[in-house]
Please model this.
Amino acid sequence: MVRRVPQRDRGWAARLHRDYAPPEKAGITASELQRFREPAPFVRPAAPVPQPAIDPAKPHLAYPENEYRRMVAMPDDVVTHLASVREPPVPA
Model:
């Protein structure tokens, strides 16, 4: 038998998380910590932000060069479409 326990205060879970490493040791000020806890809402830009150019001096995924360039150049909506799963893995 499972009994549902009423929860009067639903904000308790947010208060349970504690970062046990003092933020001061990480060089985080109180105002920065508050910004992390309550970030500003995301405002989507009107036009998509372009991918930066490939810099061979920086590390990147180990794909063949032509495939990697093609993936990096792919627009976000194409990536989203290709990665979307429309059918469940197990038939209903």
